[in-house]
Amino acid sequence: MSSRPVVLVVAAADAEAQAYRGYCLEHMAAHYDIALITPAEPTWERPFIVDWESADPADQAALEEAGMTLARRHRLAGVVTWTEWYLVPVAHLAHRLALPADAVAVMRNCRDKGAARALFARHGVPSAASVSVSTWAEAVDAAERIGYPVVLKPAAHAASIGVVRVDSEQELSTAYVFAAQAADCSAESRQVLVEEYLDGPEVSVECVTHRGQTTAVAVTRKTLGPAPYFQEIAHSVDARDPLLAMVSPAATAAVQALGLTDGIQHVEIRLVRGRPRLIEVNARIGGDLIGDLVHRATGIDLPRAAADLACGRTPDLTPTRQQAAAIRMVYPPASGTLTARRLDGFRAGAAWLERVHWQREPGDEVVLPPQGDMFTSRVGFLITTAPTAALAQQRAEEAHRAVTLHVEPRDQAVARTESAA
Predict the structure, then answer these.
(1) What does pTM read for this prediction?
(2) Which helix (H) or strand (E) is 33 found in, with range?
(3) What is the pLDDT of residues 22-40, one digit of tens each?
(4) What span, in angstroms and rounded, lies between the C-alpha atoms of 410 and 398?
(5) Distance between CA 82 and CA 264 in Å, rounded?
(6) Domain 6-101 indexed as CATH 3.40.50.20
(7) Which CATH number describes the domain made up of 323-421?
C-alpha cells in the first residue's frame, strides 16, 4: 500500500485530453496517488492512476456515485479538475465528500461571466461594461447604449467559443445567432452578454490562491487570430517578464472579488491604453498547455500546486528556472478536408523545438469559425523554448513557417461530389 495521499481527479476523456492535459496528470502523479473519474475507460492515463470509475461529470448524480465508490476504496485527500465545464459539478462533489473546496456559489459565479462582471464592479475591479440579454432586440438596445464596437459572448462557455466582435448594427443579427447557439450548449446559463470592446493587447495572469492569499506566478502574452473572432493562436511565458508586476494587482483583486480562497486561477486581461481591464477569471489551470509553458519557463509546477491546494497543503511556488517558452497553434487556411500536413525543410532536431503535435490526420474535416471553433479547426501545435520570450516566439514562428498544410476547400469537394452524381 502506498503512503502517499490520494487525490481524486475529474477529467475529460476526449481525443485531445492526453495532448493538452496529459502533463497535468503526469505532474500530479509524481507526488500523489491518483483516483480518476472520467467518462470513458482510461487508456493513456493508466500509468498515472491507482484506481478509476467511469461517469459523465455533467450527470451530477452519476458523478457523486462514482466519487462515493472511490471514497469507499481510498482515503481521499482532495479533489481537483482542470476542465472548465466540470468546475461546478466538482464543487458539489467536494462538499458531498467533505473535501476542501471553494463554495459551489463561488464556482457558479466564476462560470457565469455576467455574475463575475457584477462582482468586479461591486469591488472596484477595472472591467468592461456588460449587459446580459436573451433576445436580439435586447442585444440591439444594449449595443446602442454601450457603443460600437461591442463583443457578444455566451455567459457561460469557454475557449472563446461563440465570442465575436460586432462593429455595427448591420452585423448584430448574425453575431447574435452565433453567440446564442453557443450559449444554448451551457448548463449554467443560456444568456448572451453584450460587452464593451476592450481595445489592446491580451494577456493572462496565472495565479495560485492559498487560504485567501493570491500569488501571481506568471504572465502569458497572447496572439489572437483574425477578427471578428477571438481564437488564440500563440502564447508565450517569460520568467523575467516585467509586465507581471504591473498586471498582478488587478488579477489578484479579481480573484478576491469572486471570493476564491484556494486553487489555481487563469485570469484574462486586456491592456487598454496601458492599464489592465479584466476579461474573466477561470478557476483552473489555463488551457493550451499554458501550465506547461509556466513550468518550462519558471520551474513552478501548477498541476502539483493544484493537488497541494486540493489537499489543504501549502504549495511550493519557488521559481527554479529563468527562461521563456512559447506555443504556436497550427490552423488551416480554409475549412475543408485536410489532405496533407507536414513539417518541411526544418531542423526537426533543434533542441529548442520541444514538441510538435498533430491532432488532425489527412482525411479529417477542419472547420473554422463561424461554422466551427478551436476544437474543429486546430490541426496541431509547436512548443519552443529560449532565454527570452522574443526569441522563443521567433523560434515558434520559424517552425510554423516550415509547416505545410493542404486543405481541399468544402465548396470544391461538394462540387466534385455533385459532378460525380
Answers:
(1) 0.93
(2) strand 33-38
(3) 999 999 999 999 999 999 9
(4) 29
(5) 9
(6) yes
(7) 3.30.470.20
